[in-house]
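Reminder: ligand-aware prediction takes two inputs, not one.
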Amino acid sequence: MEIRLVIAVCFLTFFTLTKGQFQAPSFAGILNLVRYQNSDCIGSNGLEGTCLSAAECSNRKGSSIGNCANGFGACCLEKFTCGNITSKNETVFVHRNYPLDGENDTDTCQVTIEKLTGVCQLRLDFLEFSLGQPDKNGQCTTDSFMVRTTIGEKLPVLCGENSGQHLYVDLGRGSVNPVVLSVVSNGNNVTRRWKIKISMIKCNSLDMAPPGCLQYHRKSNDLVRSFNWGPKINGQVRYLSNLRYTVCTRVEENFCAIKWETETPNSFSWGLPPTGGSKGSDCNNDDFICISQGSSNGLTVGEDRFCGVKLIDNNVIITKARPFLLLVKSDANTTMNNKYSQNGFSLRYTQLPCVI
Ligand SMILES: *[C@@H]1O[C@H](CO)[C@@H](O)[C@H](O)[C@H]1NC(C)=O
Ligand SMILES: *[C@@H]1O[C@H](CO)[C@@H](O)[C@H](O)[C@H]1NC(C)=O
Ligand SMILES: *[C@@H]1O[C@H](CO)[C@@H](O)[C@H](O)[C@H]1NC(C)=O
Ligand SMILES: *[C@@H]1O[C@H](CO)[C@@H](O)[C@H](O)[C@H]1NC(C)=O
Ligand SMILES: *[C@@H]1O[C@H](CO)[C@@H](O)[C@H](O)[C@H]1NC(C)=O
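Here is what comes back for the chain with 2-acetamido-2-deoxy-beta-D-glucopyranose:
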């Protein structure tokens, strides 16, 4: 059978070469389509699609973003967007107009994720995330992204620029209730785009984040940024209010301490005071981060709360307290943060090896 197919293909090639484009290509087309049907393909702008016949792509309400199967198929982008429901792993949630620019309207775009059996967490990767900025109180009143589950802690409401960020969503072992992701957009004049990869993580898998970790980093060294981190837009800081979440880092084997430092000299400003770095109960007046038993050299007992426009004295905090966690807290109001141009934080952590 296989030999006959090879002979047929050889003959066909010969036939096509000698007799030109006439007759034969449709058979070659079928062979190519059979071979590439349903495989991944790359379309325009580097977008990933599925190779289908043009008819099948339009049946599935996808859009063709290029050719595949040596030109005999359509590289088909099937959008998972407003109103859709999925129970498939690694689904990518995009806005209605994707890959063109986003919603320009007042709208609620909502998708439902039905978990597969044996799944305990979701990981959401913001491959692209650009929504309206928060208001002057740091609240997402123009646009907002929300995750609704029936168990566990409430996840923060997000807006602004969050490409590259990720979230873990605990689902619980027993629950079969779906998770709903929604983007509420409020009015025109905002360029909105999103592309969110939704991965299902099996219970007991090593990929699970410890419970309660909104973000989880599994490297000995990585960058951690506050949501919507960046310079002022239209005279407003981008700092989000009402946050209370935990960033976890996996403790690597043979590492005994963690060092947190600013990515650049000014990349920490989180809560009052407006000059210098404060710690402990001095941070109770406004927003703060927590690094358990942190100090400049990691040798003293240290403090838990840090705030201001510097990480204590040298923009470095070291702790040996495990697990290695960063807790983030902001209140309901960014009036003072805006007054002092506080940007949020971009911190790098490095785990430090045990010294015998
Ligand atoms: C999304 O919903 C539309 C309209 O109901 C449907 O035609 C389309 O096939 C769905 N797409 C996916 C990926 O579920
Ligand atoms: C968005 O809406 C504004 C105001 O109605 C309009 O001027 C603009 O062309 C629209 N942009 C897109 C991409 O639809
Ligand atoms: C749109 O944004 C521009 C520039 O930020 C502003 O001048 C204009 O008033 C806005 N239009 C609306 C309808 O909000
Ligand atoms: C989803 O896909 C990822 C990556 O391939 C895999 O590690 C994970 O186990 C899958 N989840 C389920 C529930 O199959
Ligand atoms: C925000 O805080 C400022 C300064 O503490 C206060 O004057 C203002 O009333 C607060 N606004 C809201 C909406 O809570």
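Confidence is low (pLDDT under 50) at residues 1-23. The chain is about 10% helix and 35% strand. We will return to this case in the review session.
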